[in-house]
């Protein structure tokens, strides 16, 4: 099932505290965002990549794309002040119809098997996101006073990719822009309009590199994969 992918890469990586965009940090000598792009570069179903970048990093990113021989990036769009605005700038550049997904550049451990499951769900149901069951007991609190324990069996930790029909993705972002709504992911822009979104169960390897300790988890995931392939 062919699809296009939007990859927001225009954040600042404040919580990583590296003093620069965390996506330019290297894992095994390769920048984080290149790891992510390689998954799509090598996926025959991926027809094109739109990358949202901070204009001040555009030249450096273009050089890295050339150096690592990434050929599927069909557009570099300027990032915005929030992730949603970065994604919207790319949504406006989507070509044709079919399926488009949004995937954080900061999630390098996505795999093609899950991408395929997600694309098929989006093709069938219109909108679908990858998610994993929440493992922790989650409490709702006011300040540090517990109000209640939230029933865990209904809780999912949502990841990216999140996949939509191109027309739906355009519609939900246009509406959010018109109504000045800022959500924390793309699915929330659909949910608020009553558009149903399916959950596709993913895996716990698809972490978002957010804080410094995530780099240790990343190393562990890579080692596990190396052990498997030997
Ligand atoms: N992103 C983006 N434009 C923004 C903010 C974020 O394109 N204005 C991208 C990031 O580059 C990342 C993804 O959205 O690939 C998820 O965001 P997050 O993990 O929050 O990254 P940062 O915003 O860079 O990190 P932080 O919130 O710690 O500053
Ligand atoms: Mg952020």
UniProtKB/TrEMBL annotation:
Q: Which GO terms describe its molecular function?
A: 2-C-methyl-D-erythritol 4-phosphate cytidylyltransferase activity
Site Transition state stabilizer — annotated at: 15, 22
A Pfam family that the UniProt record links to this protein: IspD
Q: Which reaction does it catalyse?
A: 2-C-methyl-D-erythritol 4-phosphate + CTP + H(+) = 4-CDP-2-C-methyl-D-erythritol + diphosphate
Q: Name one GO biological process term.
A: isopentenyl diphosphate biosynthetic process, methylerythritol 4-phosphate pathway
Q: Does the keyword Transferase apply?
A: yes
Pathway field of the UniProt record reads: Isoprenoid biosynthesis; isopentenyl diphosphate biosynthesis via DXP pathway; isopentenyl diphosphate from 1-deoxy-D-xylulose 5-phosphate: step 2/6
Annotated coiled-coil segments of the chain: none
* EC annotation from Swiss-Prot or TrEMBL: 2.7.7.60
Q: Where is this site: Positions MEP for the nucleophilic attack?
A: 152, 208
Q: Provide the alphabetized UniProt keywords.
A: Isoprene biosynthesis, Nucleotidyltransferase, Transferase
InterPro entries this protein is in?
Answer: IspD (IPR001228), IspD/TarI (IPR034683), IspD/TarI_cytidylyltransf_bact (IPR050088), Nucleotide-diphossugar_trans (IPR029044)
Which protein family is named in the record?
Answer: Belongs to the IspD/TarI cytidylyltransferase family. IspD subfamily.
Q: What does this protein do?
A: Catalyzes the formation of 4-diphosphocytidyl-2-C-methyl-D-erythritol from CTP and 2-C-methyl-D-erythritol 4-phosphate (MEP).
Q: What is this protein called?
A: 2-C-methyl-D-erythritol 4-phosphate cytidylyltransferase
Species annotation: Bacillus infantis NRRL B-14911
